[in-house]
Specification:
Layout: H1 5-11, H2 15-27, H3 33-51, E1 58-59, H4 61-70, H5 74-93, H6 96-101, H7 106-129, H8 142-159, H9 164-180, H10 198-232, H11 241-257, E2 263-264, H12 267-275, H13 282-298, H14 302-306, H15 311-326, H16 335-350, H17 353-377
Antiparallel strand pairs: 1-2
């Protein structure tokens, strides 16, 4: 593992996904700040030791968005985390994820990555054009925020190998402390032990888990493993879909026990970490250790602090990661591959990944089946 400047720059490159969802869960859903950051920090440390590569850790995005929109409480969110943990730990440990993954060709996986890249761009636009409620006290008007974010994207794309992400996040921390430093408090925030019942589990399953499972399977497991091979080659042998399912499953068991933020991996985060300089497990180990330290040392005042972090910086990092992630499609060669990838990407972006995956499987395997059937029926 390395811990140089480039590793640290790559480590902070994926905060554009983590921070907005974390703040919304704290402000809107009443989650404990310590419980929000601690699962992410512990999973980052775990992936550093298990995979020895910059495997990302992110909130469950569809899960989090629905929970925030519906204002679900801590017990429902914790029940959903427990269900996600059980589903993916079992599927990972018994080889079900790896087995199912064999049916997904690279073109379909590239379509999933296109969906994620487009979602990153959509989230980034929302951050500067319609700031989330928790950030509005300190947010710039769109007339200022959009040009500043665009400048950040240009800098990030042209200078991403030169510590620009570290400089941007450092500037954001300084601005955050200057704007809301007096509101912070030391020590961890109180942890809520969940109180579960049948209603909490049913609502969590029908509202949160059903919407999240296809995205986690496709993006956190298949697409993250594929992106790691694209960036690290044979060094990514340990980053297999089933193992990713197991590590995120275990993390969500812990998250459920403290009513924390449900977490996963994510191919877009892999692109962000790699593109800004991370090459070893040193990046996730450094970021995970920092998140744990912040969760335990400043959790009591974290909600007030994070809402002052500049959204333009988060949007710039997120846009850059989205564009670079979409660029993974450049290795597609045939028209058929492009048709499958674009169909999956567009349907997944406009609707959800569930129907997009079904469409992609049909577009890929129906022609294959037809060819095999004709060959089997051919005389002689």
């Amino acid at each position: 593992m390395r811990f140089g400047r480039h590793e640290l720059a790559g480590a902070v490159a994926d905060l554009g996904v983590l921070v907005p969802i974390a703040v919304a869960l704290i402000v809107k859903n009443g989650l404990s700040p310590t419980a929000v950051l601690l699962p992410a920090g512990l999973l980052y440390v775990t992936v550093a030791l298990v995979y020895r590569l910059p495997v990302p850790v992110q909130p469950l995005k569809a899960f989090g968005a629905i929970a925030i929109a519906k204002g679900l409480g801590q017990d429902e969110i914790a029940a959903g985390a427990l269900l996600m943990g059980g589903i993916f730990l079992v599927a990972g440990r018994f080889g079900l994820v790896d087995l199912a993954g064999r049916a997904f060709p690279r073109a379909l996986v590239r379509g999933v990555q296109l969906t994620v890249g487009l979602l990153f761009l959509k989230i980034a636009w929302g951050l500067v054009h319609h700031p989330p409620k928790g950030f509005r006290e300190y947010a710039l008007s769109p007339g200022w925020a959009i040009p500043l974010a665009a400048i950040g994207v240009v800098l990030a794309l042209t200078l991403r190998g030169r510590l620009v992400s570290l400089a941007l996040v450092g500037a954001g921390i300084v601005a955050m402390l200057a704007l809301a430093g007096g509101k912070g408090a030391l020590g961890p925030s109180a942890i809520h032990i969940p109180s579960w019942n049948a209603h909490a589990f049913w609502e969590a399953f029908t509202v949160l888990v059903l919407a999240q499972v296809p995205l986690t399977f496709a993006n956190s497991c298949l697409a993250t493993a594929d992106a790691s091979r694209a960036y690290f080659g044979e060094a990514a042998e340990r980053v297999r879909p089933g193992r990713l399912a197991s590590t995120l499953g275990l993390a969500n068991f812990f998250s459920a026990s403290i009513s924390g933020m449900p977490v996963c991996h994510g191919a877009g985060g892999m692109t962000a970490h790699y593109s800004f300089g991370a090459r070893t497990g040193g990046a996730p180990l450094a970021l995970g250790s920092a998140l744990i330290a912040v969760a335990l040392g400043a959790g009591a005042g974290l909600g007030a602090l994070l809402t002052a972090f500049p959204l333009t910086i988060l949007a710039a990092l997120l846009t850059t990661a989205g564009l670079l992630h979409i660029a993974l499609l450049r290795d597609l060669r045939s028209v058929r591959h492009w048709v499958v990838a674009l169909a999956v990407g567009i349907v997944g972006f406009e609707f959800t990944l569930g129907p997009a995956l079904l469409l992609g499987l049909a577009l890929w395997w129906i022609p294959v089946g037809a060819v095999r059937l004709r060959a089997a029926l051919a005389p002689g």
